[in-house]
Automatic annotation (TrEMBL), chains A, B, C, D:
UniProt source species: Pisciglobus halotolerans
GO MF term set: ATP binding; kinase activity
SMART domains: RelA_SpoT
InterPro entries, A to Z: GTP_Pyrophosphokinase, NT_sf, RelA_SpoT
GO biological process annotation, one example: guanosine tetraphosphate biosynthetic process
Record text on subunit structure and interactions: Homotetramer.
Pathway info: Purine metabolism; ppGpp biosynthesis; ppGpp from GTP: step 1/2
Similarity field: Belongs to the RelA/SpoT family.
Protein known as: Putative GTP pyrophosphokinase
Coiled coil ranges: 173-200
Higher taxonomy: Bacteria, Bacillati, Bacillota, Bacilli, Lactobacillales
Keyword annotations of the record: ATP-binding, Coiled coil, Kinase, Nucleotide-binding, Transferase
Ranges where the RelA/SpoT domain occurs: 44-165
């Protein structure tokens, strides 16, 4: 089966563009609401043809079933500051009426053997084409910065070693996963204290913006 | 002294836009060169008027000296995967002829008391205005993802507590800085092993791209 | 009635961002389809607060009815090469399922007294907010480059003369409208001949891409 | 001679991205200055490999001389409202210190036989690469919307007829060039009257923003 990749990937590319604008828009809304912003940044990509073919081979997906069986041809990623933000983001995604959630995988509560942690949501998203509507699958990964950090490293390593990690490297990667997990744990505790403190504050005094050395770049 | 902020900030905003395109372009070059890409992502911002005023107050900078004495009105941030990448990025910035480096601060080797780590480069950048060239100062911060992660948290905390962190929070923040540092250390060691492995590999077999479960979103 | 403009305009801004990505995506689809591309470019804007207030005043719209009675707070504009493209674009918009068309005004067939020509489509577009879906109104203007050219000039003149155009200027503007109309007429005739020629060609010989001196910048 | 197109075109693509940000920045400056904005919009493109090869063939440019002899591999286009704006833009480009103008062609005063009108400026622009600075050539075309309109049509026609326009089409194209020219003439006269009027106005009364039916989309 010969695939015209430009034509095949076009609706996925359009979906990714639309979803990036939509998910980034959520961040702006939280900011304006002056509440905690659970989204740090949003990225998106269309899986390249060679990666699609390699994965289809690995998972025994026939090329004529790509659209229905490969869920991450369109991929979005939402980065959060705190582990707790992940559930807030998932809840908010479930409220949306512009797509349907058809699958969820909680690799935060149930991390993969490799140490990989992330929350995956698979959606069915309607793209309006010249000739009518087409529903495509897309995967949204929600994770903390520490989870993202680790996953980036793991990806590089697997890429270089072609999935056959030497014992030594493999052990280090586990220790790194542990360090990333600890970072998230520390942050969660800090978060709780911030919230308690905020509660106390709100009775005792007003708040004003103040220069704190590091401001936010976006 | 009354400042027309729109007019005052316009050349800084233009500089930030140009530098974002320039620094992001570097990333593309590394990618095409098929070598390790030392830049993960680049962000930029112009310091808002109220933050400028607060900082000028704190540092006793007279408003008529803002242009020459406040170095981070235009701010760029380059995020790296490995600590070692930071020096590569700095070297590469020094080769450029479109700006002049006028100051450097190495908070990676010499972290701040707070635990803050980053490499700061202050540049003089010429912006072409309708009425001629204007040289402005801009600060480029270069840091790993782990350093950035910690700095984001510290910024939130300082913002909320207005620089008077309770002892409890302050200690947690130190532990978080330690965890972030450990993460960078682990990564550095993994990096070395990757490079050794690559060296060995290059004698024994060719390399081909392979699906590894997590691909890169950008 | 006091309006919080940032909050009021936010869903409109989000809608404009989403619709720009969606309408520009259409252009890509036509291009890939290798057929005539009826869309030259797409622009969008949110009406500024002062323009909203001025128009509400002029049209006697109570501020509490802005959402339901002012249709162009969110505005999109689609520029076409040929007058005939306008109807193709309108037909294609009507096929979409991500918004509902609730009004149409055909100032192409029935130009305004001022000479203004354009096709206006008013849509109801659902924006997904943190707290649920909100349907907003948006106006899509579809026009040729010549119509757009004239409208830009008319806008400048009305802005400068505050809607009280001197007789002299007013007459010139009419002559300019006439010239713009002629340009569109000439183009329509050229278009027909192109299509006939294409028909003839397709029997006699193949087509290949060729350098023609001016290529397309986008 | 085999060309690695990705590597060859990369510095041109980078230059186009930088110049788009720079030239669009000019527009913002004029707007903030509250003076007439001589730039309507700016587009840019890198010439595709097949167009480069076709043009090299047509103009007898050896592939090893592409960098020095083909001036429009990187192309920018600045659209103006009035013919008079073109000279203002050219003067402003000449003041810039971030590139050197090495050639100018005035097809506004001296239109091409085909009817083509535009002002071309060829610049030498320094791009900072990982391995050092590289100077590349880029062409900036400055034209009114009417000139652009006509050129777009001519491009389509030449593309379809492969530069052998039938007499009938060729004559229509000339009439269209004439209509476009008339449109620019009318606009110039309106422009003069606007300026006179502004002069008179400034003695007699203040100016205030007013809703004029069509606002600006950008």
């Amino acid at each position: 089966m010969e695939i015209n990749w430009d034509a095949f990937l076009a609706p996925y590319a359009q979906a990714v563009e639309e979803l990036k604008v939509k998910l980034r828009g959520i961040r702006k809304q939280y900011r304006q609401g002056n509440t905690h912003v659970p989204i740090e940044f949003v990225t998106g990509r269309v899986k390249p043809a060679d990666s699609i073919l390699a994965k289809a081979d690995l998972r025994h997906i026939a090329l004529e079933n790509l659209e229905s069986e490969m869920q991450d041809i369109a991929g979005l990623r939402i980065m959060c500051q705190f582990v707790e933000d992940i559930q807030d983001v998932v809840k908010m995604l479930k409220k949306r009426k512009d797509f349907t959630i058809i699958d969820e995988k909680d690799y935060v509560m149930h991390k993969k053997e490799s140490g990989y942690r992330s929350y995956h949501v698979v959606i069915e998203y309607p793209v309006q084409l010249i000739n009518g509507e087409k529903k495509i699958l897309a995967e949204i990964q929600i994770r903390t910065l520490a989870m993202n950090f680790w996953a980036t490293i793991e990806h590089s390593l697997n890429y270089k070693y072609q999935d056959e990690l030497p014992q030594e490297i493999s052990e280090r990667l586990e220790r790194a996963a542990e360090a990333a997990f600890q970072l998230d744990e520390e942050m969660s505790q800090i978060r709780e204290e911030i919230q308690e403190a905020q509660h106390l504050f709100s009775y005792s005094k007003g708040r004003k913006k103040k220069e704190s050395g590091q401001d936010r770049l976006s």
